[in-house]
Amino acid sequence: MSSGANMDFVEAAQGGAAKELNEEKILSKTDSDIDHKSDDLIGPNGEQYPTAEEMATLRRVYGKINWMIYIIGIVEMCERFAYYGTTAVFVNFIQQDLPTEGPFPEAGAAGTDGQAGALGMGQRASTGLVQFNQFWSYVMPMVGGWLADEYWGRFKTINVAIVIATVGHILIIIAAIPAVIQNPHGALASFILGLILFGTGVGFFKCNISPLIAEQYEAEHPRPLIRTEPSGERVIVDPGLTISRVYLRYYQLINVGALIGQISMVYAEKYVGFWLSFTLPTILFVLCPILMLVCRKHYVRRPPSGDVLVKASRLYGLAMKGRWSLNPVKTWNNLKAADKWDVVKPSNMSTKPSWMTFDDAWVDEVRRGFKACYVFLWYPIFWLPYGQMTSNLVSQAATMKLNGVPNDVVHNLNPFTLIIFIPVFDKFIYPAIARMGFHFTPLKKVNAGFVCACLSMIVAAAIQHFIYEKSPCGTSASSCETPPELSVWVQTPAYVLIAFSEIFASITGLEYAYTKAPKNMRSLVTGVFWFTHAFSSAVAQAFVPLADDPLLVWLYTTIAIITFVGGMGFWWNFRSLDEQDDKLNALPEGEYTFGKDAAKRGPVESSEV
Question: How far apart are CA 478 and CA 471, in angstroms?
Answer without folding.
Answer: 9
